[in-house]
């Protein structure tokens, strides 16, 4: 019999392993947990403590899921405790009033209400998994591939919450350090970070874990709800409503009238839970102190721990390339680097350079290409509504995804998070992908495939004015506003993100003349002047033309109304909160007018832009109003 290691939590201090489990473990790749000194083994592509493996295998073979089950899935230290509290309060709100002084969350740690599937697979945390009560609430850290087959095949609901990997690492590091004895020491940040980046952490790699559930949420959105911790923190109320709708207990109008969302948010807030006596003292059955699950709960705390070198983690090749490029100060913060004739941030270069050869385009893909502030949000909304009109009726009022989501959340940017957002392996068909990248910078597979590219450009003077306003919304109070004159000078020199303007539009203009079946070139001003005919043109080009029947019930106008500037800009989802990029959603809606440049540019400025455009585009046949 093995002697239990007193430094490990109780759920890792189990009886001697069976011969079958020993054989399984001996056949697996082995790693070492840097922080808690025990072995990790790679099973089905993910790392687990050796004594967790028998539990996982038992769970896979014996657990019987029900269609009514609700599973909360996270990586450790990704908001598990908070999510458990919120879902418990939501599901049980008719039984336990969220504002009651007798609420179970006031006298119990949230982990006591949600058994972990893999910790005690036959009888998780002492809770009888054969109980007839519905819905049963379970939690798990297991990757998608390791879930029991009965879970994958059932009609149960999976709620996945992920967190910025840098904050996830820092929070995990602090938690595991608390489990170390004084003799072990605690100066391990660098070594732990190296392990984390190699994917060697419990239930890791982080990216594979998140990507598995992300792809599943796209393929089966009725079964898997994918949430981000940062968006939950930014807009807890709307995320809570979305969660309630998904798990089958939506917030009623009556409940809205007495602020049940606010009551649950307050009950389950970090400050409230962490200060309860039950969460400051005592232990769970697993052997953890209740207090270990509450540290700071902040977004961006990684900046207080990780060095710039850790954050960057650039390859030497990429470092050398970027350091050799021409550089100019950007409009918001940091530098821009000129690569292949266009200006980019180092962050975008780091993401897209390796991706140019890795990304796999499909013939059915649809790419929406714009320069920033050229109608991107409007175009995303219209094409999303067009492509999905059989699934989502544009006239369905509050049920359409565009009513509850910012268009940027529905059509991802290729260059923003090309790997982690799952663009490259999204199972939906067609895939809708946006980009600001110039033609020369597109991945080779996009250029060689039979995909469709819709390019929308805007009068350069209106584009500049809109960009200037947008830039100042992104600048901090300490930075102050950047002047119109300074921004204009950079614009005219081509020093703007993804610029120069004229080279960007010229690349796609020429491509549209050579390959009109692949590239549709549109002008914002013409779209505003006659949106109906342009919507029909887009629909025809991307392969989903408007039918006679659809014309008969005025589908085009329904989509135009749904996607109009006035409608989108006044939606609550677009007036409050932030995107995962950190940008305020309201920043993407200003005026959307044609000719607003006349209210900002002097006659000399307007003439200078006209002269540059004539010089750069004169021989191409491309003109602007």
Topology at a glance:
Blueprint: H1 19-26, E1 30-32, E2 39-43, E3 46-49, H2 53-62, E4 70-74, H3 80-91, E5 137-140, H4 149-153, E6 157-162, H5 165-179, H6 189-197, H7 206-219, E7 224-228, H8 229-234, H9 236-246, H10 253-257, H11 260-267, H12 270-274, H13 277-280, H14 308-312, H15 316-323, E8 327-329, E9 335-339, E10 342-345, H16 346-352, H17 355-358, E11 366-370, H18 376-387, H19 401-404, H20 407-410, E12 432-435, H21 444-448, E13 452-457, H22 460-474, H23 484-493, H24 501-514, E14 519-523, H25 524-529, H26 531-541, H27 548-552, H28 555-562, H29 565-569, H30 572-575, H31 603-617
Parallel strand pairs: 4-5, 4-6, 6-7, 11-12, 11-13, 13-14
Antiparallel strand pairs: 1-2, 2-3, 8-9, 9-10
Describe the protein.
Belongs to the sulfotransferase 1 family. It comes from Corchorus olitorius. This is Sulfotransferase domain-containing protein. With 625 residues, the chain is an alpha/beta fold. The protein folds into two domains: 10-293, P-loop containing nucleotide triphosphate hydrolases (Rossmann fold, 3-Layer(aba) Sandwich), CATH 3.40.50; 336-617, P-loop containing nucleotide triphosphate hydrolases (Rossmann fold, 3-Layer(aba) Sandwich). The strands form four sheets. The chain has a four-stranded parallel beta sheet, sandwiched between helices. Strand 4 (70-74), helix 3 and strand 5 form a beta-alpha-beta unit. The longest helix is centred in the N-terminal third of the chain and has 15 residues, at 165-179. It starts with 18 loop residues before the first helix and ends in an 8-residue tail after the last helix.
């Amino acid at each position: 019999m093995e002697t239990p290691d007193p430094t490990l939590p109780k759920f890792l201090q189990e009886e001697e392993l069976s011969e079958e489990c020993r054989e399984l473990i001996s056949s697996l790749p082995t790693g070492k947990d840097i922080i808690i000194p025990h072995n990790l083994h790679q099973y089905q592509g993910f790392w687990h403590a050796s004594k967790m493996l028998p539990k996982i295998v038992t769970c896979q073979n014996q657990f019987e899921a029900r269609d009514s089950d609700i599973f909360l899935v996270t990586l450790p230290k990704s908001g598990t405790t908070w999510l458990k509290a919120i879902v418990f309060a939501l599901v049980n709100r008719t039984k336990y009033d969220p504002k009651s002084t007798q609420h179970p969350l006031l006298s119990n740690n949230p982990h006591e209400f949600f058994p972990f599937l893999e910790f005690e697979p036959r009888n998780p945390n002492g809770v009888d998994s054969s109980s007839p009560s519905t819905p049963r609430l379970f939690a798990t850290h297991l990757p998608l591939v390791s879930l029991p087959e009965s879970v994958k095949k059932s009609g149960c609901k999976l709620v996945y919450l992920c967190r910025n990997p840098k904050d996830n690492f820092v929070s995990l590091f602090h938690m595991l350090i608390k489990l170390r004895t004084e003799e072990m020491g605690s100066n391990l940040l660098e070594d732990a970070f190296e392990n984390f980046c190699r994917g060697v952490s419990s239930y890791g790699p982080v990216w594979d874990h998140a990507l598995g559930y992300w792809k599943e949420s796209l393929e089966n959105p009725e079964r898997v709800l994918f949430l981000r911790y940062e968006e939950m923190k930014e807009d807890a109320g709307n995320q809570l409503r979305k969660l309630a709708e998904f798990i089958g207990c939506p917030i009623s109008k009556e409940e809205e009238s007495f602020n049940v969302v606010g009551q649950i948010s307050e009950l389950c807030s970090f400050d409230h839970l962490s200060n309860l006596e039950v969460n400051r003292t005592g232990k769970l059955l697993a052997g953890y102190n209740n207090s270990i699950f509450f540290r700071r709960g902040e977004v961006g705390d990684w900046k207080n721990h990780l060095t710039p070198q850790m954050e960057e983690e650039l390859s030497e090749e990429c470092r050398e390339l970027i350091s050799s490029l021409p550089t100019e100060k950007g409009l918001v913060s940091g530098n821009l680097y000129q690569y292949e004739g266009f200006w980019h941030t180092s962050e975008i270069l780091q993401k897209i350079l390796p991706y140019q050869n890795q990304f796999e385009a499909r013939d059915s893909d649809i790419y929406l290409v714009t320069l920033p502030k050229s109608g991107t949000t409007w175009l995303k909304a219209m094409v999303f509504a067009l492509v999905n009109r059989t699934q989502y009726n544009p006239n369905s009022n509050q049920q359409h995804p565009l009513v509850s989501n910012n268009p940027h959340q529905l059509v991802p940017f290729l260059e923003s998070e090309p790997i982690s957002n799952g663009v490259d392996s999204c199972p939906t068909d067609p895939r809708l992908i946006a980009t600001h990248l110039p033609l020369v910078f597109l991945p080779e597979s996009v250029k060689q495939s039979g995909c469709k590219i819709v390019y929308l450009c805007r009068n350069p003077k209106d584009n500049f004015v809109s960009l200037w306003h947008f830039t100042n919304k992104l600048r901090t109070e300490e930075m102050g506003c950047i002047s119109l004159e300074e921004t204009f000078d950079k614009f005219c020199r081509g020093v703007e993100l993804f610029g120069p303007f004229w080279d960007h539009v010229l690349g796609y203009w020429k491509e549209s003349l050579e390959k009109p079946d692949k590239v549709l070139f549109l002008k914002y001003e013409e779209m505003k002047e006659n949106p109906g005919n342009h919507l029909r043109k887009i629909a025809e080009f991307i392969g989903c033309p408007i039918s006679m029947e659809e014309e008969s019930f005025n589908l085009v106008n329904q989509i135009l109304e749904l996607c109009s500037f006035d409608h989108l800009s006044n939606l609550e989802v677009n007036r409050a909160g932030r995107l995962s990029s950190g940008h305020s959603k309201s920043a993407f809606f200003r005026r959307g007018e044609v000719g607003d440049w006349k209210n900002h540019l002097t006659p000399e400025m307007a003439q200078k832009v006209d002269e540059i455009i004539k010089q750069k585009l004169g021989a191409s046949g491309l003109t602007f109003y």
